[in-house]
Each structure stands twice: as structure tokens, then as C-alpha cells.
What does this fold into?
Amino acid sequence: MSTKFETGASIAVIGAGIVGVASAFDLARRGYAVTVFDPAPPGQGGPSWRNAGQIGASDLQPLSTPGIALTGLRMMLRKDSPLSIPGLEKLRLMPWFWRFLATSRGENYRNACSAMKTLARHAFEDMSDMLSEAGILGKMRRSGAGFIYDSAQSFAASQPTWAMKAKAGFAAYPMNRQDIAARLPEMDTAFTHGMLSENWGDVSDPLEIVQDLAKELRRRGVAFRENTVTGLTPAEKGVSVTTPAGIEVFDGAVVAAGIASRQFAKALGEKLPLVAERGYNLTFPNPGFKLELPLILPDRGIAITQLGEGLRIGGWAEYAANPGRPENKSYYRALSRISSEIFPGLNQSGAIAWMGNRPSLPDSIPVISRSLRSTRVFYNCGHGHYGLSNSATSARILGTLIAGAEQPPAHRAFTLRRFN
Ligand SMILES: Cc1cc2nc3c(=O)[nH]c(=O)nc-3n(C[C@H](O)[C@H](O)[C@H](O)COP(=O)(O)OP(=O)(O)OC[C@H]3O[C@@H](n4cnc5c(N)ncnc54)[C@H](O)[C@@H]3O)c2cc1C
It folds into this structure.
């Protein structure tokens, strides 16, 4: 069976979220004949739609850090906790959390940090290449981001992490009361401690980026089929892709179906422990001011971005074994209250409420890998909190895999083998 795909080979991409579309973009520019499948219009089938639109490229730690068990428990006990695991989900998610906790220790932790670094180092460069080739580079800013703390204590507690980032070449500078007041005059004056992280930025609107990339792909001859893929069957000479419209055979296929990727892996007989890590946000179309910088409030698990659609405030992590679980509407009320605490002058009229399923793996590292069962099937999924940020880099890594290029040892961290 061939393991290297020659130029002109036909490749199906399952999923037209940011990761599927970026993957299609890389494959199309390598000269493959690409067809993208998704029942939803590009960007609208999952969290690629209304995420925070930040290009976060200085976070070098997985979510599971040393001491996370205690920190997580403390967080869950707090009012407006940024972390929740509803009711019986706790039992169903136990094996996943076991793996999550294992990430916080020893070699697992070091490997996850080093994989995060590999992605973070290239995120802006790869994103710039992709957007500039699509003629939309102007829709991304590398503005840096303000990490604003609730207290001097939490600011002090964060300093070892910032020192670790600085050592790895990701610069950041303290922001005091005056800096915050000067750059973020809309914020409540109670916020007096922050860090300005350089390797961060945002896009004009995350949905618009997917739509623009898809438009450019169509112009380049990439086909988009608005269909659900119900079966993926690899054989020696090709991969059959089944949809309600029939069966098409391709030389290869990429699973980039966000949280639904786990179903494809299951059908192929391989383990892909994805869970839905649900995030909530509110978008205020006329906030009454324009925020100069994207913000992160680490103590509250909240990201804030000025986007084309308005000022978006949200985040949080509600874990669910069942991604179809109804949204928790009380979170929107809490977010509305918190938004006014942060920005006392915020105009909340016409707020758009949204919830999205982050496709999350227990070690916070995406799977960018060939299937272990078929040399014709590949995965690019499990991007958790950073699917937009790492879309172009993961697409490039995937493209080199499909083209059969030699992989640097650092790319082994993304293999599906680690779960099988
Ligand atoms: C509140 C929130 C804020 C976030 N903020 C940021 C941020 O600022 N920066 C950042 O980098 N990331 C952010 N993220 C994470 C980011 O949104 C995700 O990592 C990213 O969107 C995942 O993209 P994806 O293409 O893998 O998945 P998705 O967006 O879920 O796309 C998968 C697609 O596959 C399709 N699909 C599913 N099943 C099938 C099937 N059987 N056949 C065909 N198609 C199928 C779906 O319809 C969907 O369109 C945030 C997430 C949330 C929830």
C-alpha cells in the first residue's frame, strides 16, 4: 500500500471548521485534488464559528499542570467557577480525567509542554503565510494580549510561568495600574496587575476567516459537499466516503470533524479520547467602546476580544461526555454580570449568546497523525482551546505527513499512537 501521496492525488477532508479548511488549504497548495465534506456551511458546524478569535501563541503548558487536582477542586467550589463537570458526567468522564491528571506529571508533562512549544513557535508564521496567500492577511493583528489578574497575589503566583515563557523566548512585560488605565480605560479600576504577552493577537472575526478561506479554496477548484459523512472505509486502492448522496472513492482522507472525529476513530477501531469542553460567550454588538487589546482574565477563565460582530466576552470549561447536552442558560446570566463588573460602562443591549464544544484531548495536544489502521486515513483534530491559533501550523504538519516528507522528531508528539 502506498504511504506517499503524489501531486494530483484525491483527498477528502471531513469537516469544514477552521482545522478542516486550513488542512484543505495546505493540501490544495501542495497540488492535491481536495473535496471538503460538511453538512454545515464552512465554519458554522462547531466552535470555529463564535470562538474568541484570538491567536494565542505563548501558552506553553497543557491545561493539566502540576498541582491541577487541587487547583481544579478549589476552582469548582467557587461561585462563577470557570470549570464545571455537571452531575453524572463526572462518572462517565472519569477515565478521561484520569489521563488528564496523568499529564500533569513527570515526562508526560514535559512532553506536552514541548509539543505546545512546537505549535506556539510557528503559529503566527504559518497563519500569516496562509492568510496572505488567501489575500486576507489584514484580518489578523499581532497586537499582543493583556493578561489581567484579579489580585496582586494571583499576579505574583503567575510569575514563575511567565519566567518559563520568557526563557523559552516568549516575551511578556508587567502592566501596572497606570498601564492598564492608559491602554484599557474601559476596565474597572480594581484591575491593577497584568502582563502584556507579545506572542498573541486576534482576527477580525473567526467565522469570516473560515468563510474567506473556503471562498479562496472554491476559486482554486476545491469542491465543498454539504453532506454528512456517515462512513469512511479504507481499502487497498482508496478510501470510500459514504454520505446520504452516495459513495465517492478518494486516494486518501483527513478526519477534521472536531468533536465528531472520535466516531470515525471508533469505527476504524482506534482510540481517540475526545470530550466536549464547552465554552460560553456573549457578544455585545454595540459595547460603547472599542477595546485596544485582546484580553485574558486567567483567574476567571475568560477571554475578551473586539471582533467584527462586537465585543466578545466568555470562555469557561464545562466538560460533557455528551456534546448534545443542553446548554446551561444560567452561565449567560453569570457572564452578563461579570461583563459589567469588568467594564462598568458596557452597553449590553442585543447581546448574542453562544456555546461551543471545544474538541479536547486529555493532554491538550492535538492529534495530527496517520491512522494506525490505514495508511490512507489521517487525523487533524483535538485542538481544544487553540484550534484557530494552531490551524495553519497543524495543516502544514499534516501536509508534510501526507506528502511523505521526513518528519522532525518533535512531530511525534502529535501521533495517535499515544492513546493506542
Ligand atoms: C468559547 C470558546 C472560545 C474559543 N476561543 C478560541 C480562541 O480565541 N482561539 C483559538 O485558537 N481557539 C479558540 N477556541 C477553540 C476553537 O474554537 C476550536 O479549537 C476550533 O474551532 C476547533 O476547530 P475544528 O475545525 O477542529 O472543529 P469544528 O469547528 O467543530 O469543526 C468540525 C466540523 O466538522 C463537521 N462534522 C462533524 N461531523 C461530520 C460528519 N460526520 N461529516 C462531515 N462533517 C462533519 C462539523 O459540522 C463541523 O463543521 C474557542 C472555543 C470556544 C468554545
The chain has a mean pLDDT of 95. The two ends are 22 Å apart (CA to CA).
